[in-house]
Each structure stands twice: as C-alpha cells, then as structure tokens.
TrEMBL record:
Name the UniProt record assigns to this protein: Agmatine deiminase
GO molecular function, one term: agmatine deiminase activity
SUPFAM superfamilies assigned to the protein according to its UniProt record, in alphabetical order: Pentein
Entry-linked PROSITE patterns: TAT (PS51318)
Pfam family membership, one: PAD_porph
PANTHER family: AGMATINE DEIMINASE-RELATED
Keyword annotations from UniProtKB, A to Z: Hydrolase
InterPro entries tied to this protein: Peptidyl-Arg-deiminase_porph (IPR007466), TAT_signal (IPR006311)
Keyword Hydrolase: yes
E.C. number(s) listed in UniProt: 3.5.3.12
Length: 391
C-alpha cells in the first residue's frame, strides 16, 4: 500500500461523514441565546498539585485531570454515517471503553436496537444504557459539559450541538447533553453560543483556548461578533479569558477543533503537537502558529504559559493510508490514574509520544491504543469521551 502524503489531509478529516445524513441535518435543538453571564471566578491555589480551583460558589468547568466520577461515551450504529467502517469503529469504541473502565466507571449511551451488541463488545465492566439515544459516537462534542462550584455542587452546560454546522444528521445528538444532565440529576443550562466540546480547551482556572475557524463561523454562530461569542464561552465555562487561534475553516467537518493540536496541562502549562519540519501543508502551518501564539500568551491571571511540544508521527510511516486520517497524540484522554492515548504504527514517534506523556503526567499509567478506524473517521480518543468530575 502506498502511503499518502501529509498534504492529502487537506482533502478533509471526517470527509466521508460530511455527506452522511446531510439532508436530515436541520433537526437540532435551537441554540439558546439568552444565557445569563456567570460571575467571574476568582482563582486561588489549591486542589491538584500546581493547579488552581475556582472560588467556592462560582460554577466553572474544572480541568480534565481532576478526579472523575465517570466517563461518558456513545455507541455508533449508523451504516448511513459509517458505511463499511462501522464494525471497525465499534471495535475501537469498545476498546477505549474497556480500557478506561480499568480506571473509572464508564457509561456508554446506545440506541435500544444496538444496546445488546454494545454490551457484548464492551464487556461487563462497562455500563451500557439505552435511554439516551444517539446519532454518532462523538461524545466530546455532544455530551454535557459539567461544572462544579467547589462546595460539592455540580451542574451541566449544553453547547447547542448542531451537527458541526448542519453537516450531519443530529436530531438525537442535539439532545444528548440535556438528557445526560437529567440522568445524573443536575441542573442544565443551554450556553449562549453553538459549539462543540472538542472546540474549547479549559485550564480550570479561568483560561480557555479555541480556534476562530470552528466557533466564529456562520455555520454555528451567524451574526455574532467575536466579543459576543467570547463572552458566551466565558459565561458557559466560568472563565475570564480566551486564547484564540485562527484555525482552518472548511477543510474538515469540525472546522479544526483545538483538541487535536493544543491542550492545557495545568494553569500556565500547555502542550502542542508539532508536525515534522518537512511538513508544509495547512495543518502543519496551523500547528506551528498555535505553538507560537500559546507560547507568547498569558493566563487569565496574567502569568506566562510554558508550552511543551509533542512530536507528531511521520505520515509515511503510520499504518493508515486514509486521506482523512488524524494522527493526533494530543487527542489523549486523562482519566483517574491513566492517560489514554493513541499509537499509529510509526514506532519511533509512538515511543517518543509515550515518553512525553509519561513525563507530563507523572504517576499515571500511559495506555496507547490502536484506534485507526476512528482516526480514519477524523477523530480520536478525546473526541469520543466526556468526563464527569467527582464532587
């Protein structure tokens, strides 16, 4: 098999998903625009080592490495969306769920007709429920974004998922966030913007990062200015500052989600996946720009941000030859006691990524999984998981 060139990625990640169910894409929950602003949270040192926690009483989305009560996932069953790739994607979802379940509880939302298969493939350690129907598997984008207030209370925010700008059918997925909140039994608020969870990174201490291409986009937030969108993001997440990257619009279904490239490790600390020096495509240029911007940015409290590089693989050496493949080590998921990441078959880069993650997350087990079917679908492990923090 002839490996594709890095430039092939400009053809569009998740491209084959874009056409699937497009005619039905309009059936979504109307985005709420009247969400009241939250009080800005004052930060004080405490909690996790080297981290900060919101002032008691102010709801905010915590950093992802706080202790979780559980992980939420979704079971794909649509041949209209996935066609011949469905069985492979299901095997990847099951592998991820079973791996995370070694460290914390996992709930997988499945449609009634496919719940039995999900239970069989995921095993007894994973809880499968059939009361929250789904269209697809991207729980990071569709699921409830949980917030805590430091006093044992929790609520949830929905980002008004609209199928990545009405590119895919999403009548069920548009309701997943509020249905998960109801299942957990916490108050739910619709955010004052339309976005996806993978489009927004938070440090848990007032700082967000995102790409303009995904959020400041007429397919999600028509007629809204950057200032209006930024205010709505901060209100939803309990934050006070957004670090913006330009991103890449129209080349993949997400319009360039930030969680494939740049992540927060802690307040004042981040990681960016870097391309090979020889890579010159739009995605490589975007990653370099993200690194430059994040390295010179400051946190919500005015402090510097130390940025670590994680080297991406050589696309000539990975297993997949899919033009839509996303080989993102940065799309890892942090759960209780472990970091769940991907490996792509470039053994040298895979090993280096493992070493980098082990250094960045001391005391956590690094699990590297072959999730090539998901990668060919334009996503990764972080894309299909959503954490519920412990309170």
């Amino acid at each position: 098999m002839t490996p594709h060139t890095p430039d092939d990625r400009s053809l569009g990640r998740r491209r084959f998903l874009t056409a699937a169910g497009l005619a039905a894409a309009g059936a979504a929950v109307t985005a709420a625009t009247g969400s009241s602003a939250l009080a800005a949270a004052t930060r004080a040192p405490g909690g996790r080592s080297g981290a900060a926690q919101p002032l008691a009483g102010a709801f905010a989305v915590p950093a992802e490495d706080v202790r979780h009560a559980r992980t939420w996932m979704a079971w794909p069953d649509s041949t209209t969306i996935w066609k011949s790739k469905l069985s492979g994607v299901q095997s990847n979802i099951a592998l991820i769920a079973k791996t995370i379940a070694k460290y914390e509880p996992v709930i997988v939302c499945a449609n009634p007709a496919s719940a039995a298969k999900a239970r069989s493939m995921c095993g007894s350690a994973v809880t499968v429920i059939d009361t929250i129907p789904v269209d697809d598997c991207w729980m990071r984008d569709t699921g409830a974004v949980f917030r805590t207030d430091g006093t044992g209370r929790m609520d949830a925010v929905g980002l008004n998922f609209n199928g990545w700008g009405n590119r895919q059918t999403h009548a069920k997925d548009a309701l997943v966030a509020q249905r998960i909140a109801a299942y957990v039994g916490v108050p739910f608020t619709a955010a004052g913007l339309t976005a996806e969870g993978g489009a927004i990174e938070q440090d848990g201490a007032g700082t967000l990062m995102a790409t303009r291409s995904s959020i400041i986009n007429s397919n999600r937030n028509p007629g809204k200015s950057q200032a209006q969108i930024e205010a709505a993001m901060c209100a939803a997440y309990g934050a006070t500052k957004v670090i913006w990257f330009d991103g890449i619009a129209g080349q993949d279904i997400t319009d360039d989600h930030v969680d494939a490239t740049s992540r927060f490790l802690a307040p004042g600390s981040g990681v960016v996946q870097m391309p090979l020096a020889s890579d010159t495509d739009a995605w490589a240029q975007d990653a370099r720009k993200q690194y430059q911007i994040l390295s010179t940015a400051t946190t919500a409290t005015g402090g510097p941000i130390v940025v670590t590089k994680i080297q991406g693989p050589d696309y000539y050496k990975i297993r997949s030859t899919s033009a839509d493949f996303v080989a993102a080590y940065a799309n890892y998921y942090v759960c209780n006691g472990a970091v769940i990441s991907a490996q792509f078959g470039d053994t040298s880069a895979d090993s280096a990524a493992r070493s980098t993650l082990a250094r960045l997350f001391p005391g956590r087990t690094i699990e590297q999984l072959n999730i090539d079917y998901l990668g060919a679908g334009g996503g990764g492990i972080h894309c299909v998981t959503q954490q519920q923090p412990a309170v």
